[in-house]
Amino acid sequence: MHPFFFSAHFRGIGAFSSLYWVQCMNNIIRITISCCFLALMHGMIACSKSKSGPPAPPPTGFRFAAVVVFGEQEGNAYRTYDNLPTITFLFAAPINRSSVAGSVRFRNSANEDIAYQATYKQGDSAIAITPVAPLAWLEAFTISFARTLQSTTNGALEEEVTFTFKTPLDQTPKFPVISEDSLLTLVQQQTFKYFWDFAHPVSGLARERNTSGDIVTTGGSGFGMMALPVAVERGFITRAEALARMQQITGFLLHTAQRFHGAYPHWLNGATGAVVPFSAKDNGADLVETSFLVAGLLTARQYFNSADPAETALRKDIDSIWYQVEWDWFRRNDQQVLYWHWSPYYGWEMDHPIKGWNECLITYVLAAASPTHSIPATVYTNGWAGNGDMLNGGVYYGLPLPLGESMGGPLFFAHYSFLGIDPNGLADPYANYFTQNRNHALINHAYCKANPKAYYGYSDSCWGLTASDIPNGYTASSPTNDVGVIAPTAALSSFPYTPLESMKALKYFYYVLGDKLWKEYGFIDAFSLHQHWFANSFLAIDQGPIIVMIENYRSGLVWNLFMSCPEVKAGMTALGFQSPRL
Fold it and tell me: What's the pTM?
């Protein structure tokens, strides 16, 4: 029996006993080789009278046997516990040292060579590879042995060996520690730069993402407008500066941007106001994105409430936009439900009724609140709530979930509508909405802490699944659609619901991962420690909720403004909501 039949799956103390076993087997091989050598010599003496003997046999190939590394072992891929590892490779024959330099390559993920030292053990049948200098943290590396590797008897390695490992995360703090209050302010201020410094220069609206050029997003711009009062109150900009930005935005929305029955498309060209199709047939009105936009406008209207002529004119422009949205027309011939899309070219072909539970509660609230085109409560009851179809009632990680899909779905369900709608004490016949949102966030946190898919990096400090960029795409991550990607907005926008868990995540994102996550507009959109992937993107719909929901946690400012709208109070009351604010 040869040593190369020994499994590569061992670790720790077991690795040393395995090395001992391999040494014993090597000794057996040496004894066997010695016996065969004596027998061969005897045969050669017996045939010495012949003029010539049979030709010498060709060198015999040899195989890779096992690998030993102090870390996790997963076939031929491992994660080390430090960035200066020693990795030992075992072979079924002693290695010709002179063949090593030309046969072994140590490379990083950029295919750059890494300098290493090789030491020999077990009678040269084991090669220990150690990098000369500490390796980069949280990076993948490959060590390969080509078939040009030779044994001392000139046999060739039968198959190329490729071994991949990853270095762990550097846990040292990347920035000086500051108070929790200062950290929250810093995150809000840096994230606000996305909506202030990076806003479209013509329209003042928010770009869809940092690579969108002239494409602006209506819903994300609504979130950005909600952030303006926060920025003024926190001293990031002046009230006059915020007013000028709102004048720029409302002027563009009133006089330049395309509308369809008063509703705006998902995307616009920020310079011309023309529709930019979100998809082939989504090239007209988007009622949900319009509701996010209008929620931002109403928040700004309530903030700029002085008798100053400029603020008075702004409120008039906002009301003009708000009154022109034909919410009732989106019932599609008076059906008991609202529809999401309408196209001037394709009509209702998208055929997407807005039903709960998801991010669209705000759409029904504003539709009921409209002074000019309101809907009756029956549309909410039959359409949004589906006469109870949106109920869940399950228990996950010990937490009851009143509404929605299994384990809650992506966390933006608990954020978008509740940037303005205050869930504290809010209830209707279907749910207590603070319980719904808090338990949704806690379930998301508990899932990441439990980490049933064993993704590297998930913990009670590194959590948050919601819609975000992922490697080579975009998805709505959730416990039932977990691809190993964490989005900072998920945990940070949950501050009103999970202040302790969210603060723990914030400190981890900033202090431990800050060298990779913290950039010019706050935290990047998403990352995967498991895949060693970090997005280079920022999205308006993810950055905005961070600013607004942190402020709602700190002062309730945006909730106070939006819930002070008399139309909102009337609309929510008509739909059967109960709240201390109504």
Answer: 0.86
3-state secondary structure of 184: helix
Do the beta carbons of residue 462 and residue 529 sit within 8 Å? yes
Q: Pairing mode, if any, of strands 77-80 and 161-166?
A: parallel
Identify whether the C-beta of residue 462 lies closer than 8 Å to the C-beta of residue 447: no
**pLDDT tens, 336-390?**
999 999 999 999 999 999 999 999 999 999 999 999 999 999 999 999 999 999 9
Beta bridge partners of 72: 79
Q: What are the residues facing 523 on neighbouring strands? A: 518
> What residue has token string 């439990």?
450
CA distances from 446 to 441, 458, 460, 464, 479 (A): 9, 10, 7, 10, 10
Neighbour count for residue 240 (Cβ, 10 Å): 11
pLDDT band at 2 (very low <50, low <70, confident <90, very high): very low
Lookup result for tokens 């409560």: 377
| Bridge partners for 391 per DSSP | 403
In one-letter notation, the amino acid at residue 51 is K
- Residues 6 or more apart whose Cβ sits within 8 Å of residue 111: none
74 pLDDT higher than 60: no
Which residues are within 8 A (CB) of 153 and not within 5 positions of it... i.e. 6 or more apart?
Answer: 59, 60, 93
Torsion of CA 245, 251, 252, 255, to 10 degrees: 180
